[in-house]
Amino acid sequence: MSDNKIRLQKFLSEAGIASRRKAEEMIRSGLVKVNGKIANIGDSVDPKTDSVSVGGKKVKKENSLRYILLNKPRGYVTTTDDDLGRKCVLELVSGVKERIYPVGRLDRVSEGALILTNDGEFANAMMHPSKHVPKTYRVTVRPGITSEQVDILSTGVDIDGRMTAPADVRVLSKEDGRAVLEIVLYEGRNRQIRRMCEALELEVARLKRTAVGSVKLGMLKTGEWRDLTPQEVESLLKSAGLRNGGGAK
């Protein structure tokens, strides 16, 4: 392998096309070509000499890296496009010229902090299961919650035969018929909080992510976004066990 060659999915993520995982899906589906030929998983490319295209469009590596915090409203899906015609989060950041994409997911009926970027290495660090970047949620459950249920949520819940990692759970308020919790997760399984609550026969009435690592929504209004500061990007990288990397400046 040439010293200049890198894995194709790494090249696509660094070019701001998608995360490595999504890039692999694109390669498997035949959307990616290298020098005019359909690419395969395991292919490597020389960014200086090879021509790479996705869906017929030539890939150009992004010169400007962007890191955005969006307060996602309910009703939007966290994909770049949707075959079912549902509203996508990219519609809310249509003024951004860089080709950004969501880091991880919030399901359609959930809301709150969602990071978008064109830095594939940064996105990979944020989503990798081994990094344990904490994510904080405000969760309203019905009909209420017992101390025993709080303990179970904190220590772990069996989902599909595998226990969830320990979480930080505290009750923010209680009233007749509902309770509001703060839950901090250190892993990112699909619909994890909803599935944990379902296992304990708790209905999730509202779920809002309020922070990713040390980056908080603060006063950011629903549907609005802002750029992360360099200090916030650095803080997130440190949460993932990296001092600096993924192209972050």
Plain-language structure description:
By secondary structure, the chain is α+β, with helices and mostly antiparallel strands. It has helices spanning 8-14, 20-28, 120-127, 147-155, 192-199, 230-239; strands at residues 6-7, 32-34, 37-38, 44-45, 52-54, 57-58, 67-72, 101-102, 111-117, 135-142, 158-159, 162-163, 168-175, 178-185, 203-212, 215-216, 225-227. The strands form 4 sheets. Strands 7, 8, 9, 10, 13, 14, 15, 16 and 17 form a 9-stranded mixed sheet that branches. Strands 3-2-5-6 form a 4-stranded antiparallel sheet. A two-stranded antiparallel ribbon has the order 1-4.
Structural features:
20% helix; 249 residues; 6 helices; alpha+beta; four-stranded antiparallel sheet; nine-stranded mixed sheet
H/E element string?
EHHEEEEEEEEHEHEEEEHEEEH
Beta-sheet strand percentage?
25-35%
Summed up, the helix count is 6
The chain-level mean pLDDT equals 90
Question: Can you give the helix content as a percent range?
Answer: 10-25%
Q: What is the terminal separation in angstroms?
A: 29 Å
Low-confidence blocks of residues: 244-249
Task: List how many beta strands DSSP finds.
Answer: 17
Estimated radius of gyration? 20 Å
Instruction: Label the structural class.
Output: alpha+beta
Largest sheet, described in full? 9 strands, mixed
Give the CA-based shape.
Answer: elongated
Please specify the SSE layout and strand pairing.
Elements (H helix, E strand, L loop, with lengths): L5 E2 H7 L5 H9 L3 E3 L2 E2 L5 E2 L6 E3 L2 E2 L8 E6 L28 E2 L8 E7 L2 H8 L7 E8 L4 H9 L2 E2 L2 E2 L4 E8 L2 E8 L6 H8 L3 E10 L2 E2 L8 E3 L2 H10 L10
Parallel strand pairs: 9-15
Antiparallel strand pairs: 1-4, 2-3, 2-5, 5-6, 7-9, 7-17, 8-9, 10-14, 10-15, 11-12, 13-14, 15-16
